[in-house]
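Lay summary. Proteins are chains of building blocks that fold into shapes, and those shapes determine what they do. In this project we predict the shape from the chain. Here is one chain we studied, written as its sequence of building blocks.
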Amino acid sequence: MTPNIQLEKKLNVAAWIITVVVLLLVGMMRRIKIDIGIDLGFLPGFHATLNALTAVVLVFALYFIKQKKVELHRRAIYVAMGLSILFLLSYVAYHFTTPETLFGDSNHDRILDEMESAAVAGIRPFYLVLLLSHIFLAAAILPFILFTFIRAYTNQIERHRNMARWVFPFWLYVAITGPICYFMLAPYYG
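And here is the predicted shape, written in a compact code that computers can read:
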């Protein structure tokens, strides 16, 4: 199969549009809260599960391609992309409808008082570094995940390989740190 450059150009534009829309939604979801009358408090655990499954599937995808099982690799990547899309839709829905949870807020009043802050002083900086690196890399890597996928989809295998070598570790890092952040924050959900 020959590379489809015209399709790649159209998909690249779509990737940039998707990235901008996602980043705008993520930026707005902390400021705008919509009362839908349904408690979506169960979703953080679901999000952690989706991230963990994505990490496992990504490891399988890497294993398959190292074994030159291209079709299994392709299927695994489709599953990872599907899990990531489901995560993103659910994550945005949750944050548009649910107040933020603060690390250390043991009485769930959405205020980190002096006593609560002192109780988590040793671990909070670690949590924040992990969370901020997770969020920053998730935002930064999104278009590159899409571009890497597009390169394979349009049969530009060498370009796909070159991108995947550096995109994959960041995607895997984001997929692994999501559940870690969840388990660290879990005691403080209301």
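What the prediction tells us: Residues 5-27+40-188 form a domain with the Four Helix Bundle (Hemerythrin (Met), subunit A) fold (CATH 1.20.120).
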